[in-house]
Amino acid sequence: MSVRFVVTHLSHGSPGSFYRPYEFAKQLISQGIDAKIFTPSEEDVKNITDVPMISLPNFGQKLKISNFGYHGIRKFVYSKFLSPIIPYDKLLLSLSNKISNSLEKSLDIHPDILQGEQEVGALASIKVGKKLGIPVTVDIHNIWPEELASTGHIKRNSTVFKNLMNIEQKIVENADHVIVVNDFMKNYIMSNFKVDDDKLTIIPPGGEIIHQNHEKINHFRFMNKKIVYSGLVNPREHVDLFIKSIPEISKKHSNIKFVVAEKGESINEIKNLCKKLSVNPDFYWFESRNKARSLLKECYVATLPSKNDIGRKLGTPLKLLEYMSNGLPVVANDVNSWCDIIREEKIGILTKDDPKDFAAGINSLIEDEKMYTRMQTNMINLMNKKFSWKLHVEQLLLPVFKKIT
After folding, report:
1. How far is C-alpha 91 from the geometric centre of its chain's CA atoms?
2. Which residue, 37, 211, 234, 292, is most buried by CB atoms nearer than 10 A?
3. For residues 232 and 19, is the Cβ–Cβ distance under 8 A?
4. Residues 6+ apart with CB under 8 A from 94
């Protein structure tokens, strides 16, 4: 079997959107399947070596998709000042047409499966798949018009929102199979796009146990307790909730250190909030996944604040699984949906959307190391039995591929 993934996000520009298909491809290859990723990012083609990466040169060379260029495009697209005049629907169609033209020219073989990630990759894959007679799966990590509406870039009653939803409808209709990340998204798609249950498969984010000797790591973590927020600092992530909880934590535990990622549309707002509250977390950003994991190894508790809106509920954050992979108990404000994993599997603490309550959740883990290790054990068992990328591919993804071919 040969599978080609179409990915349009950079590995360090939107890690959650990149590493999901990367892990799928990596596991397929380990089972002897010919899997490759097509991307407009020349940097990822150069830097990612354990999964074959093929550039979409006609697209990438003309638009110079680099780290700087990618973030320039994101800054333009997510500008609140410009959002009233940005034709998001036309932009989406234009980008997908460029990707599809490049993809058709660049395909190294006639694959058995094309899988498009998110809207741009999905539209491009469907167009090429229809023309060449290749079955197409689309992997939907979130619903872009809902994301834009949740962040205030467009209004739900606007023409642009309706046009974008029509595009989503066409993606679901024309794909041979649709992969979603959680029950909330599956129900949303069935309700809004009138699709049959048998055309949808839930494949949640996965992970892998990174550290085998947790006793040794915990000795260091217990001596140097750091609380971390890892991932992009965007409006929907609600990082301000974590920042506002820091003074409450410091009242009881003055020696605790805090670490916050230094990348995303809201980073300047978060830094200004830190100055206002006179808190001084360490800011960092590593484009290397291994370096980021080295930092997480040193941390004690991971935070996962989130806005309670449709856009956030639809997409299970990959960093939840990255925290689990590193054996880091999680504190999150309860938005239901993917938060059910934390509640049901007992791998962290859910709080109200309130800084004092969020701080109380973190303090309870700082003070109760036995509870901490129980949650860590639950995470390890969960990763081995339910949320590993290997199991996802074997038990969920491959059956979909076999079904549509």
Report:
1. 22
2. 37
3. no
4. none
pLDDT tier, 82 (very low <50, low <70, confident <90, very high otherwise): low
* CB-based contact 185:314 (threshold 8 Å): yes
Q: Are residues 360 and 393 in the same domain?
A: no
Q: Contact, 312 vs 150, CB < 8 A?
A: yes
Number of domains observed in the structure of the chain: 2
Calpha distance 162→258 (Å, rounded)? 42
107-133 confidence digits (pLDDT tens)? 999 999 999 999 999 999 999 999 999
Q: Which helix (H) or strand (E) holds 115?
A: strand 113-117
User: Domain limits at 106?
Assistant: 2-206+388-404
C-alpha to C-alpha distance for 316 and 320, rounded to whole angstroms: 8
The CATH number of the domain holding residue 248 is: 3.40.50.2000
In angstroms, how far is CA 244 from the centroid of its own chain?
24
Residue with tokens 């799966």: 137
